[in-house]
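Per-record layout

source: Marinobacterium halophilum
name: Acyl-CoA reductase-like NAD-dependent aldehyde dehydrogenase
length: 471
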Amino acid sequence: MQTVSTLYINGQAVAGDRDAFPVINPATGDAFAHCPAASPEQVDDAVAAAGAAFKTFQYTPNAELKAMLHRIADLIDAHADELAQLVTLEQGKPLALAQMEVGAAAGWTRYTADLEIPVKVIEDSETRLAELHYKPLGVVGSITPWNWPLMIAVWHIMPALRTGNTVVSKPSSFTPFSTLKLVELINEVVPAGVINIVTGEGGIGRAMTQHADIRKIVFTGSTPTGQDIMRNAADNLKRLTLELGGNDAGIVLPGADLDRIAPALFQTAFINMGQTCAALKRLYVHESQYEDLCQRLAKIATEQVVGNGLEVDVTFGPVQNKAQLAIVAELVSDAKQQGARVLSGGDVQSGNGYFYPPTIVADVSNGVRLVDEEQFGPALPVVRYSDIDEAVAMANDNVNGLGASVWGEDVEQARSVAVRLESGTAWINNHSEVLPHCPFGGSKMSGIGVEFGEEGLLEYTQSQLLNISRG
């Protein structure tokens, strides 16, 4: 093993103050490299560098900011092979999916580059011109998870830069290398101190969320961590965007075309091995089609090729880490004890790595942990219902509310059901789809604020009303 990459503080590659830590390839269970580890003092250095850079960077003309992001997107494309390899090594997903993640990261960067920051005219009269302007906040702290390490880093960093903020990034210690590489590339484009990155645990995240000179935290991850961030952010009233846990429900309406929707249901439930915040995680199916759809989903599951994402023909990679593997296994085991039928998968795969095959679990209901709790992995509970009101009530009976979906042939009927669901996004005949121009965020315990589009961009700004007297 070797230590690869470095921290970046004030435009310089620097070593970590603490001992480097191993990063595990989830397909083998072994460390493939060591990552540098920052100290709390280096967090202070990174924030200070970002604060100093902000003094001038905030005045960068829009045209220059746009050009910077386009150059960053070009660099992502130029290093696509390296980035995809890093994503697969550290996260485990099949290489084809990692390549899609890299391509999406470049595309998302270009879309964000071209977003306009509006000036809204509130009043234009003989006596007054009132305009609402949007100004950058200052230093933004980005804390990202391990499931889509490159993509979510782009989601956090690019709107911050587009609006003239500076950034301190902290990736998950499970998956630091693709984000380290991204920050290295960004530093080829932006002035020193505009983008900084620290890695490691031992209070690094808390040092950021409590830091008096960070004006905003954007975080994607678990609800308990999000709650802790809110508490830590209180002292200086940091702005927050929190995309937290999801336990997304899907409802299949009677008469749905199962030939058409079964593959889409499987894909949206098991995308990234189910390790996606807005994946379909609970499926409610009318009793008239319940058994048929369960068997179709199980058949698709058994057709997957589970293995190392770097191997040809593999379609389904490992769970990213040992702790998450244990959670999935425990929830499925508990469901079995409650009388559930496991139609595919259902056990940890023997051998090296953190493999759990795609698992379809039938004959469960609300009240079973696999239904009530977010599994965040390759196990889908399928729940039987008899009427639509019952399905809606069960779908809404959860503390989370990130996404939800309705599947059926009558779009107007599906729409009437979808608007009753307590979720930040409600899809019809789809799920999990996030788009750069569509605001995305959670309701209830699934977070606060939104990302993407103009609404998400403006969350990185402070509004200022310019009131010009004409009297």
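summary: The longest helix spans residues 95-113. The mean pLDDT is 97.
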